[in-house]
DNA sequence: ACATCCCGCCAAGTG
DNA sequence: CACTTGGCGGGATGT
């Protein structure tokens, strides 16, 4: 009994006595295991002492170590001990010396690495140099989580999870079990997996304030543990019921491997790693172990107990500029690249480690936050709280308030001045943002059971125009949130932009289908929805069964080539390779061919110009994310609003168009690509992000593959989103003219050509860079009316600018942008501080968003569809019993 | 029998 | 080349 109840206790306890850190530790410990709990007293002593007494404790532990039972040696406990040594919100950065820690904690170094890797994935520490890490504590946690959530959304993890769950359910049914039908299950899985794999492979998300340690980032392909950890966390952040079963997580995290055989082993290995990660996360109090009872039986799972809301990432308007600027992407795998990117300055060689100056700045900022936040040790904060969130300082709040006001105004739209604004849509867009952040309403549901279905449904259907209330499960949607959202946003700090790195896939031989998979994924969903009958689920067995493999293969094949092809093309891959040239070539090839590149899966190619390269791909990546997010949002929105089916259908093509001409899938691919990001890295201060994004979008629009080339190489990137978006948007392509190319000037301004513009606007809006005004202009142009508009053509540019008052476009680097050369112009926009933006910014050009959705919609539709049925099933299945309740 | 996951081999990277 | 990192999976320990 004890154990089971634990969770409750904890909660209670917390509320009761949050005060001491010690208490937290105790709780954690207790959570960890009953036995431990018993010993708790002992431990407590230790714990208490820990902070001050490291040495003594350690020594104790150390001594004990040998004797200690396995449990006592658990990674979770070790992590507790480790955490006890450092404050949650450190003022000045603490340095952590691995050797010392290992010695003090009396454990092998190897174990410390495990902990550090997980902590690093959450940006609680960052590697400074060889044996040293810098302790950040939880100061960046909120941001990181926000970024991860976003990334997770981009990945469509939610849908993937649903699919998997469905599959499982189906299996249960069994009727078909044996069969392998590939279709249903297979495909989906493939899709899911594929993307994951490929994408998954490596991306790592960095945070803005944090320094990127290029070193750690780049080097090894590895990152698996780091990446895995981030992905795992993403699952929680994205899933409705914040409960994620080990099984599902493992499946999702396993790339797709074609081979079924391996699945089993791989699955086992993955599970082992997940336990490792889970132990650390448990000690961080971010998750709790629980058991989910399905029809089949109980499965172990973990429940998210961390902060529900995250600060916003800001994309939206609120903090856009600053944030973005702040953030940066790093990316490219290569160190060199990273270094270059990071430091524009020639720092050259060693830059990896980070510029001191940057670091300092970041630190100072962080510190300020911390101070402001002052987090007591207590966990209390974790409790959800408001959306707002912890970290941001009062300043943030103010900004937020400002933003809100602005938004409100905009929304009200009083200003008719801007044509763009006209759209009702405007509100929506905001909504998105709002939802994101502010909204947080929380995801609604925590209830495990229902949520899926319920949530989903609502989204889809309802809401035609505005969205009512129903928040969707997704967080985004509801418009309502918008105003709030801003608040959340922290400024730059928060977050700016993140960069996602996609690594090239590694050699991963295994599955190579890679490309396909991605493309498929998207496709699949749709199909599934529609098509899939019920296939049984061959997939059900998922991991284990070999059959699965077969299925996959079949699926893929069946799927269609097209998808694959597309995927490929789309996927393109970015490569990590730093070299532009190569990248470009590849990109081109891919683009042209469509695909081949599977090998590297990188998903999307970025548009970056060479110049960008500096800025990097990372930037691109970031942009991606944003785009993706936006897209997603749109999709969601659309879904709700519109017909699912339609969306699904249409969108695809549209998307496809941009990139690769022939491949429909492209869009999907893109999507996929996006999703996968690897490890998130914060972008420090790159101003360029936004720009990048924008550009990318444009480029894509341009359609020419070329753009890919550009982008890709460098960062690697991201393009997909853009692509997706763009195409769709077009419905009103009005302008066709826009060709991307055409407008270098535009771009320069920040504008994008017609097609892309929407995207850009989108992006910008999200970012917050653009105020509605500008965006609207751009959007309008495309979409709607040329006429009305405030002059789209000319205006746009100007508009952007102006409106933008907020926005400034500048070339990031010296060269950059403009040239883009072949067609793509790049633009860098530096956004001004949020403040600037804020005021006006609110308005988002919803138009663009709306439009965009079109393309997206399909996805959305898919998602939804998939979601529905499955969801319900899933829901049923899941019953979370919190933990263990023992009988 | 199964779940959890510690331990440490050994390869990839680094300096 | 020695050392640092960390993937990986055997197999011990717990339930």
How would you characterize this protein structure?
This protein is 58% helix and 6% strand. The chain is mainly alpha-helical and 887 residues long. The strands form 4 sheets. Strands 5-7-6-12 form a 4-stranded antiparallel beta sheet. A hairpin with a 4-residue loop joins β6 (287-293) and β7. α2 (21-32) crosses α3, α7 (141-155) packs across α11 and α14 crosses α35 (755-767). The longest helix has 34 residues, at 34-67. The protein is globular and about 75 Å long. Residues 1-62, 174-202, 209-219, 315-497, 501-677 and 683-887 have low confidence and may be disordered. The protein binds a DNA duplex (15 and 15 nucleotides) through α6 and α13.
Report how far apart the termini are: 7 Å
Overall spatial form: globular
Q: What count of helical segments does DSSP give?
A: 41
Structural class of the helix and strand makeup?
mainly alpha
Low-confidence stretches: 1-62, 174-202, 209-219, 315-497, 501-677, 683-887
Mean pLDDT across every amino acid position: 44
Strands, count: 12
Range of strand content: 5-15%
How many strands, which pairing sense, and closed or not: the largest β-sheet? 4 strands, antiparallel
Rg over CA atoms = 24 Å
Percent of residues in helices:
55-70%
Record the strand order, biggest sheet: 5-7-6-12
